[in-house]
């Protein structure tokens, strides 16, 4: 019975965070651009979330006649589903975790890779050249960045000796892994941005070149699902970063463990938004080149050095 | 790479800067006296219409939003029979004000003229006429014009000499 409550609780909190991020993102982006952002509806404009959601619900849910109907409908569900599945292994506190799988990290990597299906299927089913271009970019970007995303996390796994996120957090009691694996953190975070298609790596969407990329044809709540999926993706990458490199729920005792986790996660979510406010989008080929020619070798080097040092220390 | 980090940092610092947004209905910006907004027809100091119906504003108007019909009263004073400005077309360029020889048509600093019905944006003469001299107080065209239109006798205006008696040889 307790499991059901945890699942429902996590689902409830996550979906609310994803919706609340609409407001957080718009307000913070505005602050960083010397604007005010939405501040009319409700205190500090927080009811913009309600207004936006209602608007999405009441919009015409249009399926283009030239689209592949069933694939078109399924695609947005895939992204939300796969991201929500990844949250299964996130340890919010020692107790609040849906399932501390012993393949934790691998499960996360697998599920976040599945998210690319939604982009490819969505772009393909739309039967629109811009959507397809976006989907193609999305697929190749995901493949390029998935590879060293996994490799950048392996350093942490090596130091812990476990794929379980619970064990990894507990192994950071003395020192956060950000100290031992700074390169791993940077690589993982860059890969995470590419994985969630956030700016500056939102090349599959690239509204200045591709209309809206893979979700050009989507409207109403189907578009809303892509939207929610993106915000859930940000939350997921931030949560995994916190759990892997910043000691998860660990912190001084004046705050409960879950508060520490959420606080740290929130800082990273804000950093995601800050990146959107500050960095321009790279060209598509530049992105692929950096991925394969610079970041992947760096991840491999990080892995080798970590392995060598770990061997030396253990004797 | 360093420039990227610097960019991120500089953007972050903008959190502590003042916002440039003016929250319009509550806060209003100060409009300058020569700000080009709603068009009005002004009156001379005696309360008569300044407009003499010369059509120069209608000619100058690049979007043809001004329509009028000139007529004369019993004294020979010209005035518009109707004067109509379609503000849904007006681009507030101020050319009509430039063209007006009698300072009648003027643009004033008011832009809050939103309407639900497009037809309500067509202003007739009674909507345009204001009980003010606008930017040129004291100016009365018929006081400086050479003709008699019931305002003054011929030759009695400001900066005007009495008419020459063409039958007299005396200087």
UniProtKB/TrEMBL annotation, chain B:
Cofactor note: Binds 2 [4Fe-4S] clusters per subunit.
Binding residues for [4Fe-4S] cluster 2: 61, 90, 93, 96
Catalytic function, reaction form: a quinone + NADH + 5 H(+)(in) = a quinol + NAD(+) + 4 H(+)(out)
Domain 4Fe-4S ferredoxin-type positions: 39-71, 81-110
GO MF term list: 4 iron, 4 sulfur cluster binding; iron ion binding; NADH dehydrogenase (quinone) (non-electrogenic) activity; quinone binding
Keyword set includes Repeat: yes
Cellular localisation: Cell inner membrane; Cell membrane
Its membrane topology: Peripheral membrane protein
GO biological process: aerobic respiration
Cofactor(s) required for function per UniProt: [4Fe-4S] cluster
Top-level division of the source organism's lineage: Bacteria
Binding positions ([4Fe-4S] cluster 1): 51, 54, 57, 100
InterPro entries documented for this protein: 4Fe4S_Fe-S-bd, 4Fe4S_Fe_S_CS, NADH_quinone_OxRdtase_chainI
Main location: membrane
Key words, A-Z: 4Fe-4S, Cell membrane, Iron, Iron-sulfur, Membrane, Metal-binding, NAD, Oxidoreductase, Quinone, Repeat, Translocase, Ubiquinone
EC annotation from Swiss-Prot or TrEMBL: 7.1.1.-
Function, in words: NDH-1 shuttles electrons from NADH, via FMN and iron-sulfur (Fe-S) centers, to quinones in the respiratory chain. The immediate electron acceptor for the enzyme in this species is believed to be ubiquinone. Couples the redox reaction to proton translocation (for every two electrons transferred, four hydrogen ions are translocated across the cytoplasmic membrane), and thus conserves the redox energy in a proton gradient.
Subunit (UniProt): NDH-1 is composed of 14 different subunits. Subunits NuoA, H, J, K, L, M, N constitute the membrane sector of the complex.
Protein's UniProt name: NADH-quinone oxidoreductase subunit I
Organism: Pinibacter aurantiacus
Upper lineage: Bacteria, Pseudomonadati, Bacteroidota, Chitinophagia, Chitinophagales
